[in-house]
Amino acid sequence: MAQNLYGPGVRIGNWNEDVYLEEELMKDFLEKRDKGKLLIQRRRRLKQNLLRPMQLSMTEDGYIHYGDKVMLVNPDDPDTEADVFLGGDLSLCMTPDEIQSHLRDELEVPCGLSAVQAKTPIGRNTFIILSVHRDATGQVLRYGQDFCLGITGGFDNKMANAKILINHCHTNRGLAAHRHLFLSTYFGKEAEVVAHTYLDSHRVEKPRNHWMLVTGNPRDASSTMLDLPKPPAEDTRAMEQAMGLDTQ
Protein backbone atom coordinates (compact mmCIF):
# COMPACT_ATOMS: atom_id res chain seq x y z
CA MET A 1 0.00 0.00 0.00
CA ALA A 2 1.46 3.32 -1.11
CA GLN A 3 2.09 5.86 1.59
CA ASN A 4 2.25 9.66 1.35
CA LEU A 5 5.93 10.47 1.95
CA TYR A 6 5.43 14.28 1.91
CA GLY A 7 4.67 16.16 5.08
CA PRO A 8 3.05 19.61 5.38
CA GLY A 9 6.49 21.30 5.52
CA VAL A 10 7.76 19.82 2.25
CA ARG A 11 7.91 22.17 -0.77
CA ILE A 12 7.23 20.92 -4.26
CA GLY A 13 7.58 22.43 -7.72
CA ASN A 14 9.96 25.30 -8.57
CA TRP A 15 9.79 26.74 -5.07
CA ASN A 16 13.45 27.70 -5.00
CA GLU A 17 13.19 29.63 -8.28
CA ASP A 18 10.03 31.38 -7.05
CA VAL A 19 11.79 32.52 -3.87
CA TYR A 20 14.73 33.89 -5.85
CA LEU A 21 12.35 35.60 -8.28
CA GLU A 22 10.49 37.34 -5.45
CA GLU A 23 13.77 38.44 -3.94
CA GLU A 24 14.98 39.83 -7.27
CA LEU A 25 11.70 41.67 -7.82
CA MET A 26 11.87 43.20 -4.35
CA LYS A 27 15.53 44.15 -4.88
CA ASP A 28 14.68 45.76 -8.24
CA PHE A 29 11.75 47.63 -6.67
CA LEU A 30 13.88 48.99 -3.80
CA GLU A 31 16.64 50.03 -6.20
CA LYS A 32 14.21 51.93 -8.45
CA ARG A 33 12.60 53.53 -5.41
CA ASP A 34 15.96 54.74 -4.10
CA LYS A 35 16.85 56.16 -7.53
CA GLY A 36 13.42 57.75 -7.99
CA LYS A 37 12.60 55.72 -11.10
CA LEU A 38 9.25 54.31 -10.03
CA LEU A 39 6.32 55.27 -12.26
CA ILE A 40 4.48 57.03 -9.42
CA GLN A 41 7.64 58.99 -8.56
CA ARG A 42 8.10 60.12 -12.16
CA ARG A 43 4.45 61.19 -12.38
CA ARG A 44 4.77 63.11 -9.13
CA ARG A 45 7.96 64.90 -10.27
CA LEU A 46 6.45 65.78 -13.65
CA LYS A 47 3.33 67.27 -12.07
CA GLN A 48 5.37 69.13 -9.48
CA ASN A 49 7.52 70.69 -12.21
CA LEU A 50 4.68 71.56 -14.58
CA LEU A 51 2.18 72.71 -11.94
CA ARG A 52 4.48 74.52 -9.54
CA PRO A 53 3.70 78.25 -9.11
CA MET A 54 5.86 80.64 -11.12
CA GLN A 55 6.49 84.38 -10.89
CA LEU A 56 6.33 86.40 -14.09
CA SER A 57 8.74 89.18 -14.95
CA MET A 58 7.48 92.71 -14.30
CA THR A 59 7.94 95.41 -16.91
CA GLU A 60 8.42 99.04 -15.95
CA ASP A 61 9.07 100.40 -19.43
CA GLY A 62 6.39 98.45 -21.34
CA TYR A 63 8.94 96.38 -23.25
CA ILE A 64 9.55 92.65 -23.35
CA HIS A 65 13.19 91.71 -22.77
CA TYR A 66 15.16 88.59 -23.55
CA GLY A 67 15.18 86.51 -20.40
CA ASP A 68 11.72 87.67 -19.27
CA LYS A 69 9.29 85.10 -17.94
CA VAL A 70 5.88 85.63 -19.53
CA MET A 71 2.58 83.92 -20.28
CA LEU A 72 1.31 83.73 -23.85
CA VAL A 73 -2.43 84.43 -23.73
CA ASN A 74 -5.13 84.28 -26.40
CA PRO A 75 -7.54 87.01 -25.19
CA ASP A 76 -11.24 86.33 -25.10
CA ASP A 77 -13.44 87.85 -27.82
CA PRO A 78 -17.03 86.67 -27.23
CA ASP A 79 -18.45 88.96 -29.93
CA THR A 80 -16.71 87.12 -32.78
CA GLU A 81 -16.11 83.64 -31.35
CA ALA A 82 -19.37 81.67 -31.07
CA ASP A 83 -20.05 78.03 -30.12
CA VAL A 84 -16.67 77.65 -28.47
CA PHE A 85 -15.55 74.79 -26.26
CA LEU A 86 -13.55 77.06 -23.95
CA GLY A 87 -14.30 80.73 -23.33
CA GLY A 88 -12.34 83.40 -21.52
CA ASP A 89 -8.62 84.13 -21.80
CA LEU A 90 -6.63 81.03 -22.80
CA SER A 91 -2.96 80.61 -21.93
CA LEU A 92 -0.56 78.58 -24.06
CA CYS A 93 0.60 75.46 -22.19
CA MET A 94 3.11 72.68 -22.66
CA THR A 95 1.36 69.33 -23.11
CA PRO A 96 3.69 66.33 -22.73
CA ASP A 97 2.86 63.00 -24.32
CA GLU A 98 1.24 60.83 -21.68
CA ILE A 99 3.20 57.67 -22.54
CA GLN A 100 6.57 59.42 -22.89
CA SER A 101 6.01 61.24 -19.60
CA HIS A 102 5.92 57.84 -17.87
CA LEU A 103 9.17 56.69 -19.46
CA ARG A 104 11.35 59.79 -19.12
CA ASP A 105 12.48 61.87 -16.18
CA GLU A 106 12.61 65.07 -18.23
CA LEU A 107 10.12 66.81 -20.48
CA GLU A 108 10.25 65.47 -24.05
CA VAL A 109 11.46 67.94 -26.68
CA PRO A 110 9.75 68.87 -28.93
CA CYS A 111 6.64 69.01 -26.77
CA GLY A 112 2.99 69.41 -27.73
CA LEU A 113 0.99 72.58 -27.01
CA SER A 114 -2.55 73.35 -25.96
CA ALA A 115 -4.52 76.26 -24.52
CA VAL A 116 -6.38 76.30 -21.21
CA GLN A 117 -8.27 78.70 -18.96
CA ALA A 118 -5.39 79.44 -16.61
CA LYS A 119 -4.57 82.96 -15.45
CA THR A 120 -2.22 81.79 -12.71
CA PRO A 121 1.39 81.40 -13.88
CA ILE A 122 2.60 77.84 -13.39
CA GLY A 123 5.41 75.76 -14.83
CA ARG A 124 3.58 74.60 -17.95
CA ASN A 125 2.26 78.00 -19.09
CA THR A 126 5.26 80.21 -18.20
CA PHE A 127 7.87 80.76 -20.91
CA ILE A 128 11.27 82.45 -21.01
CA ILE A 129 12.03 84.72 -23.95
CA LEU A 130 15.33 83.47 -25.38
CA SER A 131 17.43 84.60 -28.32
CA VAL A 132 18.03 82.02 -31.04
CA HIS A 133 21.36 83.47 -32.15
CA ARG A 134 23.29 84.68 -29.11
CA ASP A 135 22.95 85.51 -25.46
CA ALA A 136 20.91 88.72 -25.45
CA THR A 137 19.59 88.63 -21.89
CA GLY A 138 18.22 92.01 -20.86
CA GLN A 139 17.95 93.39 -24.39
CA VAL A 140 14.59 94.56 -25.71
CA LEU A 141 12.64 92.15 -27.92
CA ARG A 142 11.43 94.01 -31.01
CA TYR A 143 8.97 93.25 -33.78
CA GLY A 144 10.57 91.19 -36.53
CA GLN A 145 13.09 89.49 -34.24
CA ASP A 146 13.01 85.73 -33.70
CA PHE A 147 12.74 83.95 -30.40
CA CYS A 148 11.94 80.55 -31.85
CA LEU A 149 8.69 82.10 -33.10
CA GLY A 150 8.80 85.34 -35.09
CA ILE A 151 6.94 88.52 -34.17
CA THR A 152 6.10 90.81 -37.07
CA GLY A 153 4.61 94.24 -36.97
CA GLY A 154 5.90 97.73 -37.53
CA PHE A 155 4.38 99.29 -34.46
CA ASP A 156 5.76 100.58 -31.19
CA ASN A 157 7.89 97.82 -29.68
CA LYS A 158 6.17 98.10 -26.29
CA MET A 159 4.44 94.75 -26.76
CA ALA A 160 4.01 93.79 -23.09
CA ASN A 161 0.35 92.93 -22.34
CA ALA A 162 -0.73 94.11 -25.81
CA LYS A 163 -2.30 92.04 -28.57
CA ILE A 164 0.27 90.71 -31.05
CA LEU A 165 0.56 88.15 -33.84
CA ILE A 166 3.00 85.23 -33.60
CA ASN A 167 4.08 83.54 -36.82
CA HIS A 168 6.02 80.36 -37.45
CA CYS A 169 9.42 81.20 -38.94
CA HIS A 170 9.42 78.60 -41.73
CA THR A 171 5.76 78.55 -42.80
CA ASN A 172 4.76 82.13 -41.86
CA ARG A 173 1.54 80.75 -40.42
CA GLY A 174 0.03 82.40 -37.38
CA LEU A 175 -0.30 80.73 -33.99
CA ALA A 176 -4.01 80.08 -33.38
CA ALA A 177 -6.17 78.72 -30.56
CA HIS A 178 -9.05 76.46 -31.60
CA ARG A 179 -11.58 77.17 -28.87
CA HIS A 180 -14.19 74.97 -30.57
CA LEU A 181 -11.92 71.88 -30.63
CA PHE A 182 -10.49 70.08 -27.63
CA LEU A 183 -7.62 67.70 -26.98
CA SER A 184 -7.59 64.93 -24.40
CA THR A 185 -4.26 65.68 -22.75
CA TYR A 186 -2.34 64.47 -19.72
CA PHE A 187 -4.17 67.17 -17.69
CA GLY A 188 -7.68 66.68 -19.15
CA LYS A 189 -9.61 68.40 -21.96
CA GLU A 190 -7.86 71.47 -23.34
CA ALA A 191 -8.20 73.65 -26.43
CA GLU A 192 -6.22 72.77 -29.56
CA VAL A 193 -3.36 75.04 -30.66
CA VAL A 194 -2.21 75.06 -34.31
CA ALA A 195 -0.17 77.11 -36.76
CA HIS A 196 -2.77 78.55 -39.15
CA THR A 197 -3.69 82.10 -40.11
CA TYR A 198 -7.41 82.97 -40.01
CA LEU A 199 -8.40 86.07 -42.01
CA ASP A 200 -11.71 87.90 -42.11
CA SER A 201 -13.30 89.52 -45.16
CA HIS A 202 -10.91 92.47 -44.83
CA ARG A 203 -7.84 90.20 -44.83
CA VAL A 204 -7.23 90.94 -41.15
CA GLU A 205 -6.28 88.24 -38.64
CA LYS A 206 -9.17 86.99 -36.54
CA PRO A 207 -9.11 87.00 -32.71
CA ARG A 208 -8.05 83.35 -32.58
CA ASN A 209 -4.67 84.55 -33.94
CA HIS A 210 -4.33 87.26 -31.29
CA TRP A 211 -1.94 86.67 -28.37
CA MET A 212 -0.51 88.66 -25.49
CA LEU A 213 2.86 88.39 -23.76
CA VAL A 214 1.53 88.77 -20.23
CA THR A 215 3.85 89.99 -17.48
CA GLY A 216 3.57 90.01 -13.71
CA ASN A 217 1.45 92.39 -11.66
CA PRO A 218 3.70 94.88 -9.80
CA ARG A 219 1.01 95.26 -7.13
CA ASP A 220 0.82 91.54 -6.40
CA ALA A 221 3.68 89.16 -7.21
CA SER A 222 1.33 86.15 -7.32
CA SER A 223 -0.96 87.57 -10.05
CA THR A 224 -0.62 88.87 -13.61
CA MET A 225 -1.50 92.05 -15.48
CA LEU A 226 -4.70 90.34 -16.59
CA ASP A 227 -5.97 90.63 -13.02
CA LEU A 228 -5.83 94.44 -13.08
CA PRO A 229 -9.09 96.28 -13.88
CA LYS A 230 -9.29 97.49 -17.46
CA PRO A 231 -9.04 101.27 -17.94
CA PRO A 232 -12.20 103.00 -19.18
CA ALA A 233 -12.59 103.61 -22.88
CA GLU A 234 -11.85 107.08 -24.25
CA ASP A 235 -15.52 107.86 -24.91
CA THR A 236 -16.45 106.74 -21.40
CA ARG A 237 -13.68 108.85 -19.86
CA ALA A 238 -14.78 111.92 -21.86
CA MET A 239 -18.37 111.46 -20.72
CA GLU A 240 -17.27 111.16 -17.09
CA GLN A 241 -15.24 114.37 -17.40
CA ALA A 242 -18.20 116.18 -18.95
CA MET A 243 -20.44 115.05 -16.09
CA GLY A 244 -17.84 115.99 -13.49
CA LEU A 245 -17.31 112.38 -12.40
CA ASP A 246 -13.61 112.22 -13.16
CA THR A 247 -11.74 111.97 -9.89
CA GLN A 248 -8.27 112.41 -11.36
From TrEMBL:
* A single BP term in Gene Ontology: cilium assembly
One Pfam family from the record: CFAP161
InterPro entries the UniProt entry points to: CF161
Q: A single GO CC term, please?
A: motile cilium
Source organism's superkingdom? Eukaryota
Q: Where is this region: Disordered?
A: 216-236
Tell me what this protein is called: Cilia and flagella associated protein 161
Source organism per UniProt: Cercocebus atys
Q: Taxonomic classification, please?
A: Eukaryota, Metazoa, Chordata, Craniata, Vertebrata
